[in-house]
Amino acid sequence: MLEFVLVLAVLGAAVWLVTGPLRQAGIPRAQARELRSATQVEELEAQREAKYREIRDAELDYRVGKLSEEDWRAQDRALRAEAVEILRRLDAARERVGEGEPEA
Amino acid sequence: MGVLGRACLILALGVALYGIAASVYGARARRREWVASGRRAVYALAFLVTVAFVVLEVAFLRSDFSFEVVASHSSTTTPTFYKVTAVWSSQEGSLLLWILLLSLSSSLVLFLTRHRLREVAPWATATLLGFGAFFALLLVAFAPPFGQTATPPLEGAGLNPLLRHPSMMIHPPMLYSGYTLFAVPFAFCVGALIARRLDAEWIRSTRRFTLAAWLFLGVGVLLGARWSYSELGWGGYWAWDPVENASLMPWLTGTAFLHSVMIQERRGMLKVWNASLILATGILAVLGTFLVRSGILDSIHAFGASTLGVPFVAFIGVLIAGSVALVISRRVELRSEHRLDSLLSRESIFLINNLVLVGLCFVIFWGTFFPLIAEALTGKKASVGPPWFDRYTVPLALALVLLSGVGPVVAWRRATLASLRRTLLWPAAAAAVVLVVLVPLGAGDRPLALAMFALAAFVVSVVGQELWRGVRARMAMSEDPVPLALVALVRRNRRRYGGYLVHVGIAILFVGVAASSAFRHARDVRMSPGQTAKVGGYDLRYVKPTAELANEKISLGAVVDVRKDGERVTTLRPTRGFYPSRDVEQFGPIGRYFEGEATSEVGLRAGPTRDLWTAIQPDIQPLMPIIAEGNRRFAQSSGDVQGLVIAAIAARYERRPPPATFRIIVSPLVTWIWVGALIAVGGALIAIWPVGAGARRRATAGYAARVAREIGSARSGPGRPEPARRARARA
Q1: What interface predicted TM-score (ipTM) does this complex get?
Q2: CB contacts < 8 A (A, B)
């Protein structure tokens, strides 16, 4: 009997857990759009961090003697241009979400 | 509690199937609530499987022999630690462990990415639940762990004696953690392919899971090697056993993926290759489980032929067909965004390293499956032994170590010959010094081992040089003392320097492998007490026999005195443990204690320069007449009396010992295999360790400011980097 009650309890917990989002009211379209833009912001932030890491890596490579100054300058210039492009897209995405630029 | 366990597994199957449907519907109809419900199905799967696992654990701890699996894999005399771990010594329990670890890692990754990868995550959820549904189906229909015995026996069969070793009991959870964690990048890759979101975002989001999978699988492989070395009694740590190979293959492709994926993250290149690599790794992880659990192999690991073969083959077939179809159908989106800038670049080195790793994997795959294919075609069992594997893997391993040294000194995108010459000068000199020193010592007789030593010296000096140059650059910027500059350097570049440390660890590991393979002395010798054998310059004297009755076994062994040039070095005590057979009919009430499974406890003196290793095979034939007499006279006696008889037989062995066979091995530098592995683990932990939120924000803000400045001055290009103090002074 105890085991039967336990099975029912586990079943109830699983059903409650899984159906939670369905029991809530549907997400309004405007909110869904906002969520989509917020996701874009996060993705662009991740891209920006990856680009910064590349810039840092190139600089470290130059400092430890793996890159000549000429090659490093060329790479750095290209990477920074790509970073700037990401920042522009990030600002645009933030405007869509209504989020201000968090970093000066 | 069997009903509760069974109910949980049936519910787990239902929840997994529901979650797949909800995730796919949510993704296609863009209904977030259904996607969220699908994600929660993964959490529910974890909850249900955890309950089932706890029920089984409690049954083992309570020695509840009404469960078939407990009766056949544990006993009342099994120590508590082994009762806990005996769960996964069974077919059913190990599959339950698989799905438990899968559901936990899946829950974690889906929770962490719940606000990201909105288009990819639902498909990844469905894929992870596909794995979950398959294993839940196996547990419900093919290998149920909660089967009941009609009449519970008073005593269980006990745990397989060979598995009574701490590293062997931790080995399966480690391997399975690796396998299931590799399911995470596999699933997100599938999701990215289906959703056509083939940028590097899914790679970044699952990078730590991939690294963790690599780490756990690597530790699992090494624990298996350690167990083989100290428990199996043949003296080696790697035998190219199919089960060992099965765990090594996904580790190799996973290693290749961890390298090549950096190129996709940076340059948007090699997308087809990376997708194929991680899909292959995921499939190889399932294949590894299939090899061990399907009973297809005749190996200690594959104990128990099972009915799992067909479902596993069908599942692997679906995985392969689905993966191939996805990659082919997305070939346009998978096109590279850039081309290689130069053949002399880190990208090129990574590509070659990938080819070597995949080549190694292919050799191992062929060597593992060729006997099965041959048997299927000819009906005769063929075997591929270590010499075959060594012929191909040794040159590839040498190439790999060389590349692990060259890779770190080559810059991304483009390197020049001049800079390469400059950075390779000292490491090449270090390798040359090793050659010059070792050849006169006799290492020249083993050119491959010698090459490995030189290459390892090359790798260690490359990494040392990299660290020193990095520290110097850091000091120029910050004026920190060396230790602080080193810590700051590594903290700011965990992935880079963690990876370098892994390279050092692997190079040291290979030194241990090369030395212990090429320069070991091994001898099988039959000795009576008082006799001496000479092996590798050591004199080993069989001083006296030992006999001991433990709770579950009879241990017959020897005390062996080891001397070198007359000086005492150590005393070794190898033993052979005899576990009782349950077959009283065949072996008799006394004889069964000598006729069951037997295991070796090796006598080992490990050291930084060499290991002294011995195993004993006592000859119990002279005891057989006494055992037979005991069987006749004490068949009806109580257990206590039979125990006294066995003690008397053991004492007789000690008093009048017959000659015993010893395997004696003197093996140099084995310890460095384990030391190298620990260094590699340390490196992986550094690479995997999350950057603190504060540190990330600071770095981001700092670079954001720099990039913002460059918007104005980008046309004129970046300035020469200056030491911070000069910049500050100028300001």
Answers
A1: 0.72
A2: 168
